[in-house]
Design goal:
The structure is a homodimer. Chain A is mostly helical. Chain A has two domains: about 425 residues, no CATH class; about 160 residues, STAS domain (Transcription Regulator spoIIAA, 2-Layer Sandwich). In chain A, about 60% of the residues lie in helices and about 5% in strands. A six-stranded mixed beta sheet of chain A has the order 2-1-3-4-5-6. In chain A, strand 1 and strand 2 form a beta hairpin. In chain A, helix 8 packs antiparallel against helix 15 and helix 13 runs antiparallel to helix 14. The longest helix of chain A has 30 residues. The termini of chain A are close together. At the A-B interface, helix 2, helix 11, helix 20, helix 21 and helix 22 of A face helix 2, helix 11, helix 20, helix 21 and helix 22 of B.
Amino acid sequence: MGNVDYVYPPANVEASPRVAIPPQQPFITTIKNSLKETFFPDDPLRQFKNQPASRKLVLGLQYVFPIFEWGPRYTLDFLKSDLISGITIASLAIPQGISYAKLANLPPILGLYSSFIPPLVYAMMGSSRDLAVGTVAVASLLTASMLGAEVNATENPTLYLHLAFTATFFAGVFQALLGLFRLGFIVDFLSHATIIGFMAGAATVVCLQQLKGILGLDHFTTGTDMVSVMRSVFSQTHKWRWESGVLGCCFIFFLLITRYFSQKKPKFFWISAMAPLTLVILGSVLVYLTHAEKHGVQVIGELKKGLNPMSFGDLVFVSPYLSTAFKTGIITAIIALAEGIAVGRSFSMFKNYHIDGNKEMIAFGMMNIAGSCTSCYLTTGPFSRSAVNYNAGCKTAVSNIVMAIAVMFTLLFLTPLFHYTPLVVLSAIIIAAMLGLIKYEEAIHLWKVDKFDFVVCMSAYFGVVFGSVVIGLVLALALSVMRVLLFVARPKTFMLGNVPDSMAYRSVEQYTNASNIPGILILEIDAPIYFANSNYLRERIARWIDEEEDRVKASGESSLQYVILNMAAVGNIDTSGISMLDEVKKIIDRRGLKLVLANPGSEVMKKMNKSDLIEKIGQEWIHLTVGEAVGACKFMLHTTKSDPVKEEPGTWNNV
Amino acid sequence: MGNVDYVYPPANVEASPRVAIPPQQPFITTIKNSLKETFFPDDPLRQFKNQPASRKLVLGLQYVFPIFEWGPRYTLDFLKSDLISGITIASLAIPQGISYAKLANLPPILGLYSSFIPPLVYAMMGSSRDLAVGTVAVASLLTASMLGAEVNATENPTLYLHLAFTATFFAGVFQALLGLFRLGFIVDFLSHATIIGFMAGAATVVCLQQLKGILGLDHFTTGTDMVSVMRSVFSQTHKWRWESGVLGCCFIFFLLITRYFSQKKPKFFWISAMAPLTLVILGSVLVYLTHAEKHGVQVIGELKKGLNPMSFGDLVFVSPYLSTAFKTGIITAIIALAEGIAVGRSFSMFKNYHIDGNKEMIAFGMMNIAGSCTSCYLTTGPFSRSAVNYNAGCKTAVSNIVMAIAVMFTLLFLTPLFHYTPLVVLSAIIIAAMLGLIKYEEAIHLWKVDKFDFVVCMSAYFGVVFGSVVIGLVLALALSVMRVLLFVARPKTFMLGNVPDSMAYRSVEQYTNASNIPGILILEIDAPIYFANSNYLRERIARWIDEEEDRVKASGESSLQYVILNMAAVGNIDTSGISMLDEVKKIIDRRGLKLVLANPGSEVMKKMNKSDLIEKIGQEWIHLTVGEAVGACKFMLHTTKSDPVKEEPGTWNNV
């Protein structure tokens, strides 16, 4: 600035408070705080503070096993409600379990096993009152497609079964570890848009798979993508069975009608809940009476009587397929967690109680570890079953216990009844359930509110439908993460103007009536200043100044003299960002302008202080608000205008 | 809120301006703008606007070949300066080129070839006036370690050479494409901290590799990590040659002394620039006179006379090693770009001219494509050589042309002179150059200003030194990206208070004297609200309210009634974020409190509007500033206190 001597500070500006440098904290405290916010944002240990040791023990027990917390307060009224809802969900769980086990290419009986042990574990450890535990279609499909890519379930059923148990074991361990190490936020990276697209895609794929059952085909592709399924279906049109097809369509129609009715009149929730079991009974009786199984209608066949056999010895840890089982476990674990946690959270919102995501993960993990040792495969909290549970008026996790007992009875005494159940019924049950997962109106909402979310959703959908489940998931995840990175790499910068009748300075884009101040350019940076954006920001700020100078020159206003950077939205800054500010300061100086900062946050002040940038910019050029910065600049403009030095214009532009 | 009937709006608040919903823009405009900001932040086509076609052609030519822009303005004075600096850097380029080619396990003559063609290409296409083109140690080392892992340079020199050309070709194509598609910002993801750590690590590794030359060892490990190098060195202590070691140490000492002297007195820059060539001449004369090459002192040996042979036919595109060449090309390309662009940018900052990163990438790409066809390997703008160029007073890229001509003369007439140059001289030159890359004082600065950047820097360093160059790079990159993701996944939330003598509301953590307002909790969210943080934010806000209610209860202040969310720093929001706000609104309602928003930005208002959240919250509860929101709340507190309904406290807490 050479010979321009500022008369500073003017009396009226000095009165306003200074921007504070936050009090220095020891390094260890900073680390501790940031770790705490990262891993313990919900502060789960708060209730343990200032309690005697015995109380701590009780609280700890209640923390790990919430049943000890609500158990003592359990009443007869609760039991009545839980009995009704438990029996309702059992009637849904039995046919669904069998169907999904078929979908996973596993013995149908596994679906019943999986509705017995895991719900009992969850009832003790879970904190949701509405979640009904069971297998889910998407995880079943994933198991089939990922394990099936390595081992053929028909040719090598024992190995396939053992790998499925092993995958379930890994899934359980992974889930429990995520919860234990408080890494639950990893699930948050599956955004709402991703899940909608992914679920709809998976539902589409599952429905397509059911064409096998509906059309009564013997041979079918092992691929899950639309192209191979369609090729497989239309290459054997001569083998289609119209009887099976007609039956299937009628069944689906029946299920959809009952669901529509139940949705219209929530009091009759049990109609849609009972419908699958009704169909199973109807179908089985029909087949038994007409001996249709001898005329090509495929039936479930023999189901072994008896409770879950132990399967701990079946887990294979030394196998060429170990990595397949591991990968399957991890991916199904994440998908299952995403669904289970979202379901638990939604219902807890309705009933206004709190769910600890990390604790839920431990519960899910333990239930899957226990399941893998007792002939179950991956379970979680499916939405459909939990919604029925909620509608049936469940009060606590006891409804899961009731369901488990009902399934136990089925396993002990009723399995022979399923011998004649036609497969087409199972296919119809799956399709009807899946159609509810395709939420096109949600996709329309995404399009309306946020185009990028819509793109993420669609990429997940088409990735799953035309590629594979994993491709869809990775695609959507990559896009979502890219969005976050792009937000930081290309932060928005705004020009601010004074909102009329107000002291506030806001984006002239948003407030079209905001007016700019002659001689002063006010910019706002809308993201943390990090390595990823420091080069961009430097160039962008330079361009703002260029454009403003061009505009001023064209309009003949008084020339630009101050650049105010509003740092209110700059949440953090790193060393690249500090260098950037330093360079911006130099660029602005070289143009004969003056850099003024407004409202830097605590992180920014801390780091500017440590790197001596505050001195370079000058403490007196850092203001609490944009308004104050503008006031100070206006004062200076006024002073320098009457300053004789200003009469040589060269001093401003040639320095 | 049931029966509490708000008398709203109060007259004094109504007067203040409303938060604006930004004017609706057509979807296509939004897309266009955001693409423009992402890929054309520097608006490179601005100068073409409103120009006649012939002028556009000239401008276009000047854009692609900046030499047409500055060429016509070239003066004799410039030539004088460029001659001096060109000859100076040639004297550095010749020994360095030979040394680095040896480091890459390539024939030494390639180092000279690479200082001939690429500088000529850069002189025409590059926009930096100070960059001196040449090979660099780190990229040479990378080539050796990545290609060497697949093909042994000693056993199969031809294949190795051809793969090196192919890798250079891929690197050039990749660099040019990055520039062409305006993806230069990818390089920005290599943060300053990453580069410091990475460069220091690579320098350490390169120095360790030179122990072979210094100690005169014949056999040496192909690994680059410290453990294998140390094992290799100390397993053959009996083969160490003390003569060579002593000579090497003297040479290094000489080079360091001259550099130290030149740094102290920048006028004598040429002393340090000439030192390597002096050493080469001295060493060669010494060996020639004493016939030391017959007594075990390794020398360069025969160097072919003549200019670069064409190597276009040597590029191998059908080979089992193609993927290795491709990978090597991509990684060396990124590293080379990072160094070259950073160097170009730094010097343009000093001299106050503009460099277009994307254009530079195209220039680098073209120079490497041309190089790969004329027996050169990867070149970029090394810092050491460019600094010498700058200090020697270069004016334009003509200094590169001068250097190229000097190297051409060397190739045509002087190569036999290098026959007796001892390898230990080359090792000394490399070590002396590398020691300058270990910037420990920068690492200390990182530690002081930003601990996380220090961790990133150290992980890059140790990753390179104990793992490999790629491991170090990936580690640092992953940590840097994780930091960005973590910033978004765990945004800061602050409690705000009124700064004394001001209308401003700021974090009570930063402004320890800021005071809170009884009955009102003011929170600020410091990041965009995305899927990755919406769950966290919901829980965190709930915890803030819990803590505030506990505090209020303990202190006996008037009970909490309003929660103001300051959205000033929320730069963007997605559909998950909108749902989160909706849920927060419900949570707050259920506690009998009222949610008030202050200063939502344009993106937030746009999406809240589209999703009807504005109606749910109520337009009258969205204010322009925190101050106005507080004013409105205070007014309501005052009104409801005298309201008879408020005398039943139950209505507030039991709804």
